[in-house]
Specification:
28% helix, binds beta-D-glucopyranose, 765 residues, six-stranded mixed β-sheet, alpha/beta
C-alpha cells in the first residue's frame, strides 16, 4: 500500500526549518499575530469601521477602498496558520488553531505545544474524540464543548478553530474515524450544528471540514471518489448543509480528495453549485492545507482562501516529500491571482466576492472591532468538567452478561488492570486533532484512584503496543508479558483488559491496515478470560475492531473510544457504577471487515485505474445497509446497554398542517419512557422513519430524531418530536430536489436501529 507523507510531520519539519525566522515563543495567552496591525487611523469615519452597521454594508464600503493588489493578496495565507492582514486598512490576520478535539496549540507561524524542546508550554483541554462525543447523542453537551474550545482559542490569542469534522464514517478502516461523528448524516448534522454554535458563541470562527467526502486517508490527495448525486445529498452533504443553514457556520474547509474527477478545492459543482448556491453559504471556503492545484480554476470554482501561505508554505512545499505526497500549494498568491485578473480569467466581481466573504466573517466574528488579544485561563474546572462529562456519557456498555458490572465493591478485594491501553492514557487518534493536555488519566490511574485503599489494584502490560517498544516485541518478551498478565488476572477477583490502538495506528494520512486488534491483543484477551472468567474487556479505539475470536466468551464489554484527558476517570466511574452507562453506538460494529458495505469498494481492494473509488454501495452506508440487506452486525447502530432498564409506551403520531398550506406539513410524535429499574440513568430514544411505498429504492429506515432523557428509578417522562416533511423525503435524482411520495410511512421509536419498540403510521396525502 502506498503511503503518503504525513502533513502533520511535514508541518513539524516546516516548524523546525523556520523556527529561527518565524517562531516567536509566546507566553500563554499572548497574541501570536505574525504581522503587527497598526492603529486604524487612515479613515477615521469610514463606514466599514462602524460596528453598528450591518456586516454587508461594511464589506461593501471596505471593498471600495481596497486596491486590486490588496484584494488579491487576501486569497492566500500569510503563514502556516494566519490569513493575510492589510495593516493600511486595519484588516487583521485571521489567526487559526487546529482542532477539533480541543486546541492544538499553534502560536507564531508554526509551533506546536508538546514538541520536545519547544518553548511553548500552553497546554489545553483534550476532549473526547468526535466519535465519542457522537456516542453521547447529546448536542447540548457538544455545544458546551464547542464553547469551551472557543474560550481556549481566544485564550491563546487566536481567532479560528479548524473543526468540526463532520465526514461520515463510511469504512471501518478510515484512519480518521475517531474524528467524525459516526455513520449517520442526521446525527452528524445535529452535533456539527451544536459544535458550530458553541464555538461561534465565543466570537471564534469554526471551520466545518472536510468538504466533501473525505472518507479515507489512503492516497488522500489523489483519491478520486465516484459518488452519485443522490448519495452525496443524502449521506455526505447533510451535515455540512445543517452546519451552514442551522448553525450559521462562518467557514467551510474543502477536502484533499477528488470527487467525480475534480479536486474538491477546484470543484465548481461542490463549492459554487452546492455550497454557495444550493445551501446559500455566505461565509468563506478555506482550502485544506496544501490542496490547491490551479489559480483561475480554483478561484472561479469558489475557493476563497488558500492555506497555508507565505514563507512557511514555501519552505514546506520545497520539501521533497510534500509534492511526492500529492500536495498542491502556492497557487493563490497575490501575483498569480492578479495576473489572472489582468488576463481576464478571474473577473473583478469574483475577486470581490472571495475577499468580501473573508471580510464578512472578520466583521461577523467581531475580530475586526475586538481583536483576540489572548489571555484567560485554559483547562479551567468548567472546561475540564465538559471533557469529563463527554467521556462519561460517551462510554457504551456493549455486553454485561451475569451483571458483572457495575463492580460490587463489597465483594471485590482485588482488580487486575491489564493491557497496553490500560497503563498508558490514549487520549485520541493521531494527526492535526491530537491535543497535548496538561495531564491525561489512564484507565489504570482512574481505577486506582476510584478503588482507594480498600481494593488492591495490580497492573500488567500484557503485550507491547505495536510500534512502541521493539524490546517488547521479541518472542521471549511476549511470553513474559502474557504470563504476567495471566498471573495477575488469575489472582484477582476481577480483571479489566483495556485493548485498542493509538495515535500512530489510527491517524490522519494513513488508514488502518486491518480491523483486527494489533499486537496480539486478541490472544491477550483470550488468555486473561481463560485465567479469570470475571473479565471485563474495554475497547479504546475510534474504529471498529474484529472481536470474533473472543466475544462469545466475554462477559462484559465496554467501549470507551478515545476519551480525551479524562477518559480513565470516566471509565472508572462507569465500572464502579458511580455513573450509569448511557452512550450508544454512533456507528455499526460489523463482525468482520468483509461485512462492511464499503469493503468491496475500498481503495486497497477495489481500486481501479486513476485511483478511482466507486461508492457503489450508494446510500447504503452503515445501518442503512445492515438493516436493509439483512446483514447482522456484531452490535447495531444506536445500541448501548444501561445498568437500569427503560420501557417505551403510548406512541402517538399527530399530523398537522400549518395555516395556509395544503397537505401535511409535519407531525408531532409523542411517547412515554419509563425507568423500570432501580438506578437513575439516561436513555437515548431514537426515532426512525420507514418508507415502504415510494417509487424509489429506500433504506428500510432512517434516523430522523433522537432525545437523551435522564430518568430517576420509576420516573416516566413524555418525549416529543416534531417531524417536518424533510423527515419523509429522499433526494430525487430526476427532480434534483428533496421529495416525499404520498402514502403511508411508519414512525418507529426504539433503543437501537435493531430494537424498535413502538411503531405507528403517518399518512402523507
Ligand atoms: C488536515 C486538516 C487540518 C490541516 C491543518 C490537514 O492535514 O486534513 O484537518 O486542519 O491539516 O493542520
Amino acid at each position: 500500500m502506498r503511503r503518503t507523507l504525513t502533513l502533520f510531520s511535514a508541518t513539524l519539519l516546516a516548524a523546525a526549518t523556520f523556527a529561527a525566522i518565524v517562531l516567536q515563543p509566546q507566553a500563554a495567552g499572548q497574541s501570536a499575530a505574525p504581522v503587527a496591525v497598526p492603529a486604524r487611523a487612515s479613515h477615521p469615519s469610514a463606514p466599514y469601521k462602524n460596528p453598528h452597521l450591518p456586516a454587508d454594508k461594511r464589506v461593501a464600503d471596505l471593498l471600495k477602498r481596497m486596491t486590486p493588489e490588496e484584494k488579491a493578496s487576501m486569497l492566500a495565507g500569510s503563514g502556516w496558520m494566519e490569513s493575510m492582514p492589510i495593516p493600511r486598512l486595519g484588516i487583521p490576520a485571521i489567526k487559526m488553531a487546529d482542532g477539533p478535539l480541543g486546541v492544538r496549540s499553534w502560536a507564531g507561524s508554526s509551533a506546536i505545544t508538546g514538541i520536545p524542546g519547544s518553548p511553548l508550554k500552553v497546554l489545553f483541554t483534550s476532549f473526547p474524540a468526535g466519535v465519542a462525543m457522537a456516542a453521547t447523542w447529546d448536542p447540548e453537551l457538544v455545544q458546551r464543548e464547542g464553547q469551551a474550545i472557543g474560550q481556549e482559542v481566544k485564550a491563546l490569542g487566536r481567532d479560528m478553530i479548524l473543526g468540526p469534522t463532520v465526514n461520515i464514517n463510511r469504512v471501518p478502516l478510515w484512519g480518521r474515524n475517531f474524528e467524525g461523528y459516526g455513520e449517520d448524516p442526521y446525527l452528524a448534522a445535529r452535533l456539527g450544528v451544536a459544535y458550530v454554535k458553541g464555538v461561534q458563541s465565543e466570537g471564534v470562527i469554526p471551520s466545518v471540514k472536510h468538504f466533501d467526502a473525505n472518507n479515507e486517508e489512503f492516497e488522500r490527495h489523489r483519491i478520486d471518489e465516484q459518488i452519485d448525486a443522490r448519495t452525496l445529498h443524502e449521506i455526505y452533504l447533510p451535515a455540512f448543509k445543517a452546519a451552514i443553514q442551522e448553525g450559521g457556520a462562518w467557514t467551510v474547509m474543502s477536502a484533499y480528495n477528488l470527487v467525480n474527477g475534480v479536486h474538491c478545492a477546484e470543484s465548481t459543482a461542490l463549492l459554487t453549485d452546492v455550497l454557495k448556491k444550493e445551501f446559500d453559504f455566505k461565509g468563506f471556503v478555506v482550502s485544506d492545507w496544501g490542496s490547491t492545484y490551479s489559480t483561475a480554476a480554483t478561484v472561479n470554482a469558489g475557493m476563497d482562501l488558500e492555506m497555508p501561505g507565505g514563507p512557511p508554505m514555501q519552505a514546506w512545499f520545497a520539501l521533497p516529500g510534500t509534492r511526492a505526497a500529492g500536495n498542491g500549494a502556492g497557487w493563490l498568491t497575490a501575483d498569480k491571482v492578479l495576473a489572472e485578473v489582468k488576463a481576464g480569467h478571474i473577473s473583478e466581481a469574483t475577486l470581490d466576492d472571495n475577499v468580501g466573504r473573508i471580510l464578512r466573517v472578520i466583521f461577523l466574528s467581531g475580530i475586526f472591532d475586538h481583536p483576540h488579544a489572548g489571555g484567560g485561563e485554559v483547562n479551567t474546572p468548567a472546561q475540564v468538567a465538559v471533557a469529563l462529562q463527554g467521556a462519561t456519557e460517551s462510554i457504551v456498555l456493549l455486553k454485561n452478561t451475569r451483571s458483572l458490572l457495575p463492580l460490587n465493591e463489597k465483594k471485590i478485594h482485588s482488580i487486575a488492570v491489564i493491557g497496553p491501553n490500560a497503563v498508558v492514557a490514549r487520549t485520541g487518534g493521531g494527526g492535526s486533532s491530537l491535543v497535548a493536555p496538561k495531564y491525561a488519566i489512564s484507565p489504570l490511574d482512574g481505577i486506582r484512584k476510584r478503588a482507594g485503599s480498600g481494593i488492591e489494584v495490580k497492573s500488567a502490560l500484557g503485550v507491547g503496543m505495536e510500534g512502541e517498544d521493539p524490546a517488547l516485541d521479541t518472542a521471549e518478551a511476549r511470553a513474559r508479558l502474557l504470563k504476567e498478565a495471566v498471573d495477575a488476572a488469575a489472582h484477582a477477583d476481577v480483571a479489566v483488559v483495556v485493548v485498542g490502538r493509538y495515535e500512530k495506528i489510527e491517524r490522519e494520512d494513513f488508514d488502518v491496515k486491518t480491523m483486527d486488534l494489533p499486537a496480539g491483543q486478541d490472544e491477550l484477551i483470550a488468555a486473561v478470560e481463560q485465567a479469570n472468567p470475571r473479565t471485563i474487556v474495554v475497547l479504546n479505539t475510534g474504529d471498529p475492531v474484529t472481536m470474533t475470536r473472543w466475544i462469545d466468551k466475554t462477559q462484559a464489554l465496554v467501549d470507551m473510544w478515545y476519551g480525551g484527558q479524562e477518559g480513565g476517570a470516566a471509565l472508572a466511574a462507569i465500572l464502579f457504577g458511580d455513573a450509569n452507562p448511557s452512550g450508544k453506538l454512533p456507528l455499526s460494529l460489523p463482525k468482520e471487515f468483509k461485512d462492511s458495505p464499503a469493503a468491496a469498494n475500498y481503495p486497497v481492494s477495489g481500486l481501479g485505474a486513476g485511483l478511482k473509488v466507486n461508492y457503489a454501495e450508494g446510500i447504503y452506508v452503515g445501518y442503512r445497509y445492515y438493516d436493509t440487506k439483512n446483514v447482522e452486525p456484531l452490535f447495531p447502530f444506536g445500541f448501548g446497554l444501561s445498568y437500569t432498564s427503560f420501557e417505551y409506551s403510548g406512541l402517538t403520531v399527530t399530523p398537522y398542517v400549518s395555516a395556509g398550506k395544503a397537505g401535511l406539513t409535519g407531525a408531532v410524535v409523542s411517547l412515554k419512557v419509563r425507568n423500570t429499574g432501580s438506578r437513575a440513568g439516561a436513555e437515548v430514544v431514537e426515532l426512525y422513519v420507514h418508507d415502504g411505498h415510494s417509487k424509489i429504492d429506500r433504506p428500510v429506515h432512517e434516523l430522523k430524531g433522537f432525545r437523551r432523557v435522564a430518568l430517576k428509578p420509576g420516573e416516566t417522562q413524555t418525549v416529543a418530536f416534531t417531524l417536518g416533511r424533510a423527515a419523509l423525503s429522499y433526494w430525487s435524482p430526476e427532480k434534483k430536489e428533496w421529495t416525499a411520495d404520498p402514502g403511508t410511512f411508519e414512525i418507529q421509536v426504539g433503543a437501537s436501529s435493531r430494537d424498535i419498540r413502538l411503531r405507528a403510521p403517518l399518512v402523507l396525502k
